[in-house]
Amino acid sequence: MSSRDLILSRIRAAVAGAPEVVIPRAYRPAGPEEGRVELFAERVADYRAIVRLVPVEEVATAVAAALAARGARRVVVPAGLPEEWLGSVPGLERLGDDPPLGVTGLDAADGVVTGCAAGVAETGTIVLDAGPGQGRRALTLLPDYHLCVVLADQIVATVPEALARLDPVRPLTWISGPSATSDIELNRVEGVHGPRTLEVIIGA
């Protein structure tokens, strides 16, 4: 018997004969549609992320402006990112991930541009699932700058709504603002577990 089987058998023995517990499921599964985009923008900004809310037809212009303001010339571009989002950026060196970029290559890049799988208005959270335009998890953890495009129809009001849209077998990354920790004496340190700068363009 493995250690895992031994532990599970002890748990089963301990709870044998215990009454069945009814778990309440009365939480609010959905929120209002109205104002979700504006609330998402507000909550993302609360996390000290840079937020640009633009008409969807101006996403490419906003991406170009964001990269220019950052001085980003070499950026990681995951497979499947809409070509039109980067089409108006002159002189941009696009770093593909096929073959996969190593740690040194990702660290040397000026940033990464991605889309997302969903956005949650109540929590200001962006969800990536390694789908088209998002790439593997390392692409958004190692570069110091992450520029993420979120479209209005990807934004839902609540976490349960986001979960209903997502595939649980995919590698999900939930992002709430730039990487930061206050573990040591409550001093905020950014860039510990991911990019220090998160910029979000919301195409509405």
Can you characterise this structure?
This is Lactate utilization protein C. Residues 108-202 form the LUD domain. InterPro entries: FTHF_cligase-like_sf, LUD_dom, NagB/RpiA_transferase-like. Helix content is 24%, strand content 22%. The protein is of the alpha/beta class. It starts with a helix and ends with a strand. It has a single domain (33-203), classed as NagB/RpiA/CoA transferase-like (Rossmann fold). It has a six-stranded parallel β-sheet with strand order 1-12-7-4-2-3, with helices on both faces. Strands 8-5-6-9 form a four-stranded mixed β-sheet.
Distance between the termini: 57 Å
Q: Could you give the count of β-strands?
A: 12
Rg for CA atoms = 20 Å
Question: Spans with pLDDT under 50 lasting ≥5 residues?
Answer: none
Beta-strand content estimate: 15-25%
